[in-house]
Amino acid sequence: MSVARFVADQRTNYRVPHSLTCALLGISVSWFYKWLARAGDPDGLHTDTDRRRAALDDAVRAAFAKAKGVHGSPRLVSDLRDLGWTVSENTVAESMRRQGLVARRIRRRGGSPGRTRPRRSSLTCSNGASPRRRRTPNGWGI
């Protein structure tokens, strides 16, 4: 139960004024009335940001379905911008993460798995010759 719901229930069940309950709980009355006005919204979205986020989620879901789940956030950004949205790649990525949308990886065929050329050992030069000998305090060394 939220604090605002508690304040509203005190008025409904026990006829305690909102101002008194808010003062006892240390919250402002204006905040409570703002919550009360938002609670009446039929869609349950309280702010403009919430409404835009919900619309963006719908647009991302539709673009992702249209791309058959292959496009990730960078390609979906260009698709959404073509539709007139002003979004960044991070915003679309966050929307996809929130909805659990993960782009399918495309498997590339061909090519060798791993290195194509053997590693050069540390005791030989790049052309295969032995390295230059250096003088050390104990004599000649590599």
Overall description:
Residues 106-120 have a biased composition (Basic residues). Residues 106-142 are annotated as: Disordered. The protein is mainly alpha-helical. The chain is elongated and about 95 Å long. A hairpin with a 2-residue loop joins strand 1 (134-136) and strand 2 (139-141). It has helices spanning 3-14, 18-25, 29-39, 48-66, 73-82, 89-99; strands at 134-136, 139-141. The model has no long low-confidence stretch (mean pLDDT 83). It is built from 6 helices and 2 strands; from the N terminus they run ααααααββ. A two-stranded antiparallel ribbon has the order 1-2. Among the domains are: 3-39; 48-99. 12% of the residues are buried.
List the helices and strands and how they pair.
Elements: H1 3-14, H2 18-25, H3 29-39, H4 48-66, H5 73-82, H6 89-99, E1 134-136, E2 139-141
Antiparallel strand pairs: 1-2
Helix pairs in contact: 4-6, 5-6
